[in-house]
Amino acid sequence: MLEGLFDKRVLLVTGKGGVGKSTLVATLAKVAANRRKRVLVAEVSAFGDDHSQLAAMFGLRKFGRTKMRVAENIFGMILLAYVGQETFIRKTIKSKALAKAAMRSNALKQLLTTTPSSRELGILYHLLSEVKSTEHDLVIVDMPASGHALAITGLPEILLKALGDGAVSETLKEGQRMFCDSNKTAAVVVVLPESLAITEGIELKKGLEDDGVKVGAIVVNQFIEAKLPREQLVALASQLKDEDVLGAIGIGRTIACGDAVAKLKATSTIPVVDLPHVAFADIVSELTQSIEETS
Predict the structure, then answer these.
(1) Buried b (16+ CB within 10 A) or exposed e, 186-217
(2) How confident is the model at residue 212 (pLDDT cuts 50, 70, 90)?
């Protein structure tokens, strides 16, 4: 059900914090690499010096600001606002001497730090630079949590309404074309198998689509597969409801999990893929196998 994603140029993986975005990014990268795709996994970072959950999936503490090989056919890096800002200034100011002087200016650094949307614009430009590269076939982005992700995807349309022609507008138009080209770009929304989390995921999907971004799939992470038919689980839960029995809560959670995901699949107009809850030590290998089996 995720087969079509691997024909894209850019995958934007997003969701609430803690739903397993980084795990899914690493898993999708491994599946694509197994298909001989040259993959770049990119993580949006504030400063680049913090521990990276995505890098940990490849046995590293963090990625660098330039591409580094992390596995067969897979490279990793972080997307930084100031790198995109520096690249943009160097491209806009033709004189190398003036560009270097501008980047040393404390006043400019302060302006770039405090100006609304300058961070998102820097990240967008950094991402665009990597998407243009011919070194990789697929760029998979570990996006920030829901609201911050929408701040990036919605940036072009918002700022283009306020800005006239110029270098910034051209960058925004380029970013808008990238985000809105459904042949090249797709978003993947990751949720947990809980009613509230799924509702929030559906709202995020709508927000992305309002920004013109095609959502290719909703992935339900840590899905608990029932070993018995629902009717038997309900009967068992009813018998144990007043008993202090180990596992009684787990039965109720399994029922709720199944109901929430079944409702989502019944109403969704895009593929919904559930990935099993697995031990952390084997997580990427186990999920890679799960995706391969369903593709």
Answers:
(1) bbbbbbbbbeebbebbbebbebbeebbbbbbb
(2) very high
Answer yes or no: are the C-beta atoms of 5 and 218 closer than 8 Å: no
Tell me the whole-structure pTM to 2 decimals.
0.85
| Domain ranges within the chain, ordered by starting residue | 3-224+270-290
Both structure tokens of 67: 């591409």
Task: Return the CATH number of 3-224+270-290, one of 3.40.50.300, 3.90.1580.10, 3.20.20.70, 3.40.50.1820.
Answer: 3.40.50.300
How confident is the model over 227-260, as pLDDT tens digits? Answer: 778 788 788 777 777 666 666 677 777 888 888 8
Can you tell me which residue has the tokens 């890098």? 55
Tokens of 112: 């770039």
Q: Distance (Å, rounded) from C-alpha 85 to C-alpha 242?
A: 61
Q: How far apart are the first and last CA of the chain?
A: 5
